[in-house]
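About this split. The held-out portion is used to measure sequence recovery: a designer receives only the structure tokens and must propose an amino acid at every position. Recovery is the fraction of positions where the proposal matches the reference. Here is one held-out target exactly as it appears in the evaluation file.
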């Protein structure tokens, strides 16, 4: 929990008579994560992993997952990479390079390959949490992180999909973490440059659209520096130069693009499909609950008004990159009408990192500094119940999901279970 300093009375202003009160909702985060942070991360990770187990018991591999299974089940890593290079599947090479040893270590069953995707989302949650806690309080971070990773219909669907979107989301979170470390740093160190370049290079090689997410993070950094009248080419080059790794895989990505010409399986997006991409689903009632709690508790001085300038700047920088990342549906909509259709719901999984940032920012705005009273105690209790519900939601959602069995029993017989 966070600590918060409040004055005992107006007469004590200017004196040393202050007392420390342990607060669940203090606005200023500690310099390092507390035990409660790791406990929530561990609980959320367990919930996501268990939901994957429940999903896998009710769902067989579907068409796209069969491709993943065929690739990573190959006995030869070199042969697998040759197959991927010839457009046997449409993912980036990094996924197969990581999933292949995972499959040969833990098996290539439905549960095993899906847990690899779950592990990617768990990393995304942990990295996003740590990034947000640099400038946000525990309660706001818990709301933003858990609302996104534990209730998003899109992410809960990807928890049990043996595809590359979990890895892609984790790498997007790492790129945002590198942005957060760079945004308000006066001197961009060599270590930060290397970290940034590796994060963006990995993101670029995770999926054909990985470079677009990397580009949005670069755009956020350029806008942020422009607003602060500074120019740091070292940071920009670290990101842009990482895109050169595409030279290693440009031919395979071009082959994948050719598969969609002249007619692919993705329909041309309409304005309605674009707006549906921003649909919050089950998260809407959580946002309404947050607003209601914030309205009831907003009887004191807003916590943001008492934050140090550096903390406020860190929050603004994160809000900027979060806002740009969630514009990926609009980017794909435009590219679909310029080149070929690209707007697919699961391609937007990495944009969830941006939603987590914006939800956390909203919760932080509603944080207040106040004394102990009956109302604050009741609100504190409601928050605890809400967080418990968020942690339980992935498993509840998995248990209520309809079963999905493969219609082709011949193909199903080839896939190992368990």
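Reference sequence for scoring:
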């Amino acid at each position: 929990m966070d600590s918060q300093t409040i004055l005992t009375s107006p007469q004590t202003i200017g004196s040393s008579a202050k007392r420390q009160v342990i607060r669940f909702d203090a606005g200023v985060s500690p310099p390092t994560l507390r035990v409660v942070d790791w406990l929530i991360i561990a609980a959320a990770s367990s919930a996501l992993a268990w939901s994957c187990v429940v999903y896998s018991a009710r769902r067989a591999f579907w068409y796209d997952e069969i491709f993943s299974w065929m690739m990573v089940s190959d006995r030869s890593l070199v042969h697998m990479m040759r197959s991927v290079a010839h457009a046997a599947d449409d993912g980036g090479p990094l996924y197969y390079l990581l999933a292949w040893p995972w499959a040969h270590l833990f098996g290539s069953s439905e549960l095993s390959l899906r847990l690899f995707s779950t592990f990617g989302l768990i990393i995304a949650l942990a990295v996003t949490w740590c990034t947000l806690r640099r400038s946000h309080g525990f309660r706001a971070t818990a709301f933003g992180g858990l609302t996104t990773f534990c209730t998003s219909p899109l992410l809960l669907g990807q928890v049990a999909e043996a595809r590359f979107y979990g890895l892609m989301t984790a790498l997007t979170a790492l790129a945002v973490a590198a942005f957060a470390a760079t945004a308000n740093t006066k001197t961009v160190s060599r270590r930060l440059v290397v970290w940034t370049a590796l994060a963006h290079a990995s993101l670029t090689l995770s999926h054909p659209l990985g470079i677009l997410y990397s580009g949005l993070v670069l755009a956020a950094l350029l806008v942020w520096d422009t607003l602060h009248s500074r120019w740091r080419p070292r940071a920009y080059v670290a990101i842009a130069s990482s895109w050169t790794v595409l030279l290693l895989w440009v031919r395979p990505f071009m082959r994948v693009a050719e598969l969609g010409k002249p007619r692919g399986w993705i329909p041309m997006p309409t304005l309605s499909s674009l707006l549906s991409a921003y649909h919050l689903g089950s998260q809407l009632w959580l946002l309404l609950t947050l607003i209601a709690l914030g309205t009831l508790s907003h009887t004191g001085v807003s916590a943001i008004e008492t934050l140090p300038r550096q903390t406020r700047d860190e929050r603004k920088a994160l809000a900027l990159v979060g806002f740009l990342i969630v514009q990926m549906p609009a980017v794909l909509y435009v590219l679909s009408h310029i080149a070929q259709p690209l707007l697919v719901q699961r391609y937007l999984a990495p944009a969830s990192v941006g939603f987590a940032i914006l939800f956390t920012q909203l919760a932080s705005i509603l944080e207040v500094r106040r004394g102990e009273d009956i109302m604050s105690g009741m609100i504190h209790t409601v928050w605890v119940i809400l967080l418990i519900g968020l942690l339980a939601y992935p498993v509840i959602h998995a248990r209520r999901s309809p079963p999905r069995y493969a219609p082709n029993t011949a193909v199903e017989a080839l896939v190992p279970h368990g």
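Annotator remark: The beta strands are 2-7, 18-23, 301-302, 368-369.
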